[in-house]
Amino acid sequence: MSVVPAEALPGGALAVEETGRAVAAELGPRARLWPSLAAVYRAQLSRARVARIPLLFVATFQSIGIMILMRGVVDGGGEAQSVVAGASVLVVAFVALNLLAQYFGQLRASGGLDHYATLPVPPAAVVLGAAGAYASFTVPGTLVTAVFGCVLFGLPLAHLWVLVAVIPLAGAALAGLGAALGLLAPRPELATLLGQLGMSAALLLGVLPADRMPEAVRFARDLLPSTYGVEAFARTFGPHPDWAFVLGDLAVCACVGVASLAVATWAYRRAAVR
């Protein structure tokens, strides 16, 4: 008995082509960005809920402790506004920058990126979904820190609603930076170190009043993504906030967030193909 290739039979090429089309039809179209983003976000949120809640308490207590220490140095005025705003955004930096850098560093080292690479999910959905899930954990801690700081320093509570814009915009900028650091670091230990250094920079440059810093340190402060979220929040404590400057700071924070998430998406593609 001889075996004849299917292509050699009459109509064999047509049969092979129809079989290929049938397989393609069974696989279905590639997943779209927004449904994939929602799926990754829900998966990351449920996965990290138990493990990250204790760390969220640590971030909140850390920021509250810093404000209590600064209360002995700062009496009020613009310096108190900077301290409260910086401590509130520090909660976002701890989770979105520090923890996300560690997560992606460990994911890359353990081969977890291979799992996402086999799924028909756009790279942007993986980065944005994980960043959004981690940033979501910062909401309660940031609100508690802001309220406690306002009571501690005697600041008004009327404009705390601006955190609705500050948290996601600052969180996007810091989460994109944290994801990029974790994905570009060659080892998970280095990713953890970079995340810690980034959070320390957010602490020193965000909480301390800018008026007491040297000129070179002020320039470094302007390069930090969370600075503009701190400035936007701090401006709302005045008796007559200049909303044009608040919107300007939020716009800069949004642009930095888009850029940092784009870099993180590129870093994910780069790490996934290796």
Notes on the structure:
This protein is an all-alpha fold and 274 residues long. Helix content is 79%, strand content 0%. It has 11 helices and no strands. The protein has helices at 12-27, 33-71, 77-109, 112-118, 123-136, 138-153, 163-184, 188-207, 215-223, 226-235, 243-272. Helix 3 (77-109) runs parallel beside helix 7 (163-184) and helix 10 runs antiparallel to helix 11. It is elongated. The protein starts with 11 loop residues before the first helix and ends with a helix. 45% of the residues are buried. Mean pLDDT is 83; it is low at 1-10 and 12-28.
Features:
274 residues, 0% strand, mainly alpha, disordered N terminus
Compute the number of strand runs: 0
Principal-axes geometry comes out as elongated
What's the total helix number?
11
Order of helices and strands: HHHHHHHHHHH
The separation of the N and C termini measures: 46 Å
